[in-house]
Design brief:
Number of domains: 1
Number of helices: 2
Helix content: over 70%
Distance between the termini: 52 Å
Oligomer: single chain
Strand content: under 5%
Length: 81
């Protein structure tokens, strides 16, 4: 998950840097805004990816359990020869 922290930070820095440059702010203000954006986006992106991964794994586990239950039911219904 460290790479997602890095990607979020990079996106935040780049996005806020571009927005601040476009608004015509001085380079000091631009860099300050970009640094704050880097930190915030890194934490938010890391949290978001963790939540998405958790939801995906829970749904995948539920589907696997349902498939296993259906397989058990099929084995019980089959007549033994």
């Amino acid at each position: 998950m460290n790479r997602y922290f890095f990607i979020g930070g990079f996106l935040g820095f780049t996005l806020l840097f571009a927005i601040s440059i476009y608004s015509g702010a001085s380079i000091h203000v631009v860099l300050r805004n970009a640094m704050v954006g880097c930190l915030l986006f890194a934490f938010f992106f890391h949290y978001y990816i963790n939540r998405v991964a958790q939801i995906y794994l829970e749904s995948r586990l539920r589907l696997m359990e349902e498939a296993r239950q259906q397989e058990r039911e099929r084995q019980k219904e089959e007549p033994k020869s």
